[in-house]
Design a protein that fits this description.
Elements lengths: L2 H6 L9 H14 L7 H8 L6 H9 L8 H12 L2 H12 L9 H13 L8 H11 L2 H7 L10 H16 L7
Length: 178
């Protein structure tokens, strides 16, 4: 069966991300956390109820004992509904990040971090993430961001701290937009 056909029977929206679906369900499960029951067990019991049609059939076809932990079940789910070609394209998109024409800095940051979240397979450390984001900014924005020195030359901790503080200020509108 073609992967597109599979996706439409599990995800409500055409562009819904399997990682986001799992994250949303984890948020719901965390509301009902009980110290007497392991979270993984709750996830194993609750997640199947979010599946429908062919995805539910796929789950029933899993060989008995193949997904005895949430980690194993989650990986099987992602393997089934997250094609490797899409992962490769997302990683390439992250690595080739560019600020859009006239895009405010905080919007660029939101778009970049959303792409990181939707592709946890990127395996980039924070320093690499910051470098990619910085290099993807247009020259004018980079000059404005460099008011305390070029971010890529800073230590990872200092660069992230400065970037987060700067972006927090921008997102609250307390500084003139870049």
């Amino acid at each position: 069966m073609h992967r597109r056909t599979k996706r439409k029977h599990i995800l409500r929206k055409k562009d819904e991300d399997p990682h986001e679906r799992i994250s949303n369900i984890i948020e719901i499960i965390d509301l009902f956390h009980s110290p007497e029951v392991a979270r993984d067990q709750v996830m194993l019991m609750a997640f199947p109820f979010t599946l429908k049609e062919r995805a539910k059939q796929w789950m029933k076809r899993l060989s008995a004992g193949s997904s005895t932990t949430w980690k194993l079940f989650k990986q099987a789910f992602l393997d089934e509904y997250r094609p490797s070609l899409k992962i490769i394209k997302q990683i390439e998109s992250i690595r080739n990040f560019k600020q859009k024409l006239n895009e405010p800095l905080h919007c660029s940051w939101e778009r970049f971090t959303k792409s990181l979240f939707s592709c946890p397979e990127h395996k980039l450390n924070e320093h690499e993430q910051l470098r990619i984001f910085y290099q993807g900014l247009d020259a004018e924005t980079r000059l404005k961001v460099d008011f305390k020195g070029p971010i890529p030359r800073m230590t990872q901790t200092k660069g992230w701290k400065l970037s987060r503080n700067y972006l927090r200020i921008l997102s609250h509108g307390t500084m003139k937009e870049i």
